[in-house]
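User: For my dataset I need records formatted as: sequence, then structure tokens, nothing else. Please produce one.
Assistant:
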Amino acid sequence: MSDMIIRKEGRAGRITFDRPQALNALSHAMALEIHAALGGWRDDPAVSLVIIDAAGDRAFCAGGDIAAVYRAGLDGDHQVGRDFFRDEYRMNARIADYPKPVVALMQGFVMGGGVGVGGHASHRIVGDSTQVAMPEAGIGLIPDVGGSWLLGHAPGRVGEYLGLTSARMGPGDAIFAGFADTYLPEAEWPALIKELTRTGDTAAIKGKPRPTATLEGADLSSFGGRTVDEIIASLKAAGDDAALKPLLRNSPLSMAATLALVRAARADLGVRDSLAREYRFTYRATAAGDFLEGVRAQLIDKDRNPQWAADSSDTHVRAMLAPLGDDDLKWEESQ
């Protein structure tokens, strides 16, 4: 049984996450289904736009379903994770580069893999319940699914702040940071979807004034530090315990790599460049990073007490982000 509802309705191709009991966590199979649906509709004259939404009120998509990646990695099988990340990133790129409008309506938790789906849509709608975050450094990973591209293009040092602290954004902050475009109360979403399917015209999207963005005007100057250690020292000097706490909790390797990825993304020509760089880390994550320990502590045993052991030196960060040769992420001809 599929965890996605994929169909054509009026002028729209419709993709609905239908796994609310698991906060619509994105599995490998779900990523492939989204990718295939978009491929099938690209040249379909009956489909004028695509609408992506989710069942339930708690989450659009709270992240990737990485249990299978974890179990395989423990057994020494790193290919399961590599295949999942490769196919997920190809799907992310297809959304970002899609030739027709893609409308994402994102309620509740929008984290990690959920950002990779909704965050790259051409029309990104959020409501009052929306909570967006890239919390990967807390599980020994990095802001992937094109997250480094979005973070790298956030204003000021917002990208470094969000990537290192895993902080959550409400609707106002999500729009300010460039993770969303339009605020519309969720009670108005059904009527909008009905109009979009009827007309196939995004002119139907008429948002309301953006809620207050707490990040706007925030002093994030400490996150301009050259290294994570410099950022931590600056936060200590400033007495910013709220921002400091997650940096003392998250994986040192993941944070160092996140800093490098966010800053490198600022020079990328497009999201595919950022995805390809992210893949170099995630390709190696189960074998040479903190990922297995992070998943164990946060999601499996849930003791919230990870014992980070991976080397976080500049040398190892460069090794984790070094080209993979023949295994580097490749794009399909039809991408």
